[in-house]
Amino acid sequence: MAQVRFSVGIRRFIPFLGYHHFLMILIAIAIILLSLLLAGCSSSSPLIPNIFLISLYYQSYPPVFDPAQVDPGVTTAIANIVGRSQLVVRVGYFGICINADGGSFLCSNNASSLASQVTVDQDPLNLIWVASTFKDSIVFPYLIIVAIVLAFVTFLILATFPGWHEEVDERGSEVRDVKPFPSRPVSQVALALIFVASVFVLVSVLWQHTASVAASTIAQDFGNGSVKSGVGTAAMILGWFGFALLIIVTIGLLVMILSIQLLDDLVDG
User: Fold this and answer.
1) Cα distance between residue 19 and residue 158, in whole Å
2) What backbone torsions phi and psi does residue 94 show, to the nearest 5 degrees?
3) CA distance 226 to 79
4) What's the confidence (pLDDT) of residue 10?
5) Of 25, 57, 64, 153, which cross-links 88 as Cys (Cβ 3.0–4.6 Å)?
6) Is pLDDT at 11 greater than 50 in this prediction?
């Protein structure tokens, strides 16, 4: 019986969901995804260390030889220095996570405090310092922060759009469900804000992707045969999915504005 009542309640509620409500849901999901992206490697909480831009770690593998290498034998010297170190370093927008012994990750936004937790044998090539340089000199999270703020403002603007409500006709004999059109200037402001947010996220994600791949490749070539590196898949997915959702909202708002304008033109005509 309770399930039947719940089903009936949902059926009554769904028709009163406006077009802008679905856009608000997409914006909320995008904000959550981008917030998770920024939170990567900021704490040792479960799953947070798995959201990273790049990962640097010691691992022995056959070195790559190339005629462009002046001293190919340096790989042997590097391997002797690294020894049996198995340190893993992950970099996020606001933090660095390390795992020195295969246990749990230790995360902090202060590279010096992390470096004090390991010995020389655990990080002989100063990967923590390399990760800190990448985070401080290359990573730029503030465009995403501004984009989140703009998306949230757009969310609040959409929340002011009129929804379905009951209205009595002129004779007072019939109750109808009506939904007024939102204000065109307000809709245009919302469109401008979400468009700017989309552009900011696009620039940030492209920057993040290019910088991470470049830094990862250079770090691995420098530690040829002893240092491996990789780009964080979860961070890339969060960034691109967040951008895709904002683009969908931008297109949705544009279609809504053009449709309302077309209807107004047809009525006036």
Assistant:
1) 10
2) -125, 15
3) 6
4) 43
5) 57
6) no
